[in-house]
Specification:
Length: 161
């Protein structure tokens, strides 16, 4: 929950200003960052789930079955450390809306782009654990989470209206 305080200064019509603030807070209620349903191919979403949470058993791979995939929680690793900053950004958006310096849609889009960048940076970080020798041989690279770049390119955001 975000709490804001309003200082009333005698400039103009308070009722008109409150109606304006009410109008500017109508609209988007949330922003989803990562792989929003319907915006990414299903096979990319499955790849992301396997890699984020890991698998206990063998997994389907090109040309047969592969070894278990270790968990690489790239979304959690990207967003968990910035929780305080996120709350601060939300307070700033609320403050700007109340002051008339912006609207909720602009703020939510800014948050979405920020979250998208954080997750893509985490994917590029080559986070551990390292790939198995079999995976390195199959894809020709030791980079974790990046094979053909589709996961990285599919990370996006969606502002829900």
């Amino acid at each position: 929950m975000i709490r804001t305080t309003i200082k009333v200064q005698r400039r103009g019509d308070l009722r008109a200003r409150l109606r304006e603030v009410e109008r500017s807070t109508q609209g988007p209620q949330s922003v989803k960052v990562g792989l929003p349903a319907g915006r990414s191919p299903q096979n990319v979403i499955e790849y992301a789930v396997y890699n984020h949470f890991g698998t206990a058993g063998r997994t389907p791979r090109r040309g047969g079955w592969g070894a278990p995939i270790p968990a690489r929680p790239f979304i959690t690793a990207a967003l968990y450390p910035v929780q305080k900053q996120l709350r601060s950004e939300l307070r700033g958006i609320a403050r700007n809306v109340v002051r008339g310096d912006g609207n909720l849609l602009q703020g939510m889009n800014r948050l979405g782009l920020w979250g998208q960048d954080l997750i893509q940076t985490q994917i590029r970080s080559n986070m551990g654990p390292p790939n198995s020798p079999m995976t390195v041989a199959l894809k020709g690279s030791s980079r974790t989470l990046i094979d053909d770049g589709r996961l990285l390119q599919s990370i996006t955001y969606e502002v829900e209206r």
